[in-house]
Write a structure and sequence with these properties.
Elements (H helix, E strand, L loop, with lengths): L1 E3 L4 E3 L3 E3 L6 E3 L2 E3 L8 H13 L4 E5 L5 H8 L8 E5 L6 H16 L1
Parallel strand pairs: 5-6, 6-7
Antiparallel strand pairs: 1-2, 3-4
Helix pairs in contact: 1-2, 2-3
Length: 110
């Protein structure tokens, strides 16, 4: 639900529980598939505006090139405000899978 003027827009984004967790996610998400092609400063501005509008669900995947790193850098100070959904991470045997999860965490913490 949005209202405002030609220059100022106020939105109220509905949220819903994420599965059986206590996390509340916006019904509208931000897809980060193509943010690796844009200048990093523009990506940071876009991601901050997304959170400002109440959209807290950000979708990314390992195959989206640099999107995970860019999200981690851009929203470092606002991590508690977002829920990051990632996919396409193929876990192999237990030690390799743990290594891959560790690498994902490192990328998001950059």
């Amino acid at each position: 639900v949005c209202h405002g003027t030609a220059t100022v827009l106020f939105c109220s984004i509905e949220t819903t529980p994420l599965g059986s967790t206590e996390l509340q996610v916006s019904r509208l998400g931000f897809g980060a598939a193509r943010i690796d092609a844009d200048p990093e400063e523009e990506v940071a501005t876009l991601l901050h505006r997304t959170l400002d509008l109440g959209i807290n669900l950000i979708d990314t995947a390992d195959c989206y090139a640099l999107s995970e790193e860019r999200i981690g850098r851009a929203l470092e100070s606002r991590r508690q405000e977002m829920v990051l959904a990632t996919s396409d991470l193929q876990l192999r045997a237990s030690t390799e899978g743990a290594d891959e999860l560790g690498m994902l965490g490192e990328r998001l913490n950059e």
